[in-house]
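Hey team,

Filing this mostly as a record. A colleague (T.K.) asked me to run one chain through the structure pipeline before their review meeting, and I want the input and output archived in the tracker in case anyone asks later how it was produced. No errors, nothing strange. Just documentation.

Input sequence:
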Amino acid sequence: MPGFDAFARVAKEVRRDVRAARDRDPAARGVAQGEILATWPGIHALLAYRVAHALHAAGVPFLPRLLSMLTRAVTGIEIHPAARIGEGLFIDHGAGVVIGETVDIGSNVTLYQGVTLGGTGFATGKRHPTVQDNVTIGSGAKLLGPITIGHGAKIGANSVVITDVPPNSTVVGNPGHPVRVDGRRVEGPDADWIHLPDPIAEAIQALASRIGTLERTVAELSEEEPQQTAEVRPLRTVKGPNPAGG
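Output structure:
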């Protein structure tokens, strides 16, 4: 029966959303499934989106956008009814999350509060990001334009990304700089935004090292005492426990 099939599909999607919240949100550990379903705004927003998306695909006027607007008023999460979202999306906290009209999101993606998947300019057609599977996007990050975020990538908090991101890489900064983490793949969600690489500090360190080498070479040629090279300290700590609990 078509009605029963639709109900079974929605129930399966809701169970998957609850499971994603329990797996990726430390605050959900030990919390009953019913409580997660009743009090997690990300799950409410996704459920409303699926209804609005189905109505939009069926060509129903006005109602999909009205439902999207009401959901934004209740949850603080705005998802355009035409956006395409895969399985296992988890929106943590959710306040200020915006997902634009031509966004494509793969499976097992994690978004934190304040994330914008937005467009640029007034062009028509594909104008929003494509986010592939197993991507994690940190709080306040802005991904703008028809860019592609590769599988397993991690976007640091408050990064502004306007170019494609390679798979299994990390992006930090404004504009975002892709940085591979210790030469290893980045798989699954990871909320450790404190111990990300700092490309600016690394570039300054490389320049300071090069200047020191040149100063020593000049001092040897001129038989003068070489000057002490100034110490370059990282802009953020690279030690300490992982705040994500990993």
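Quick notes for T.K.: The chain has a mean pLDDT of 84. The two ends are 46 Å apart (CA to CA).
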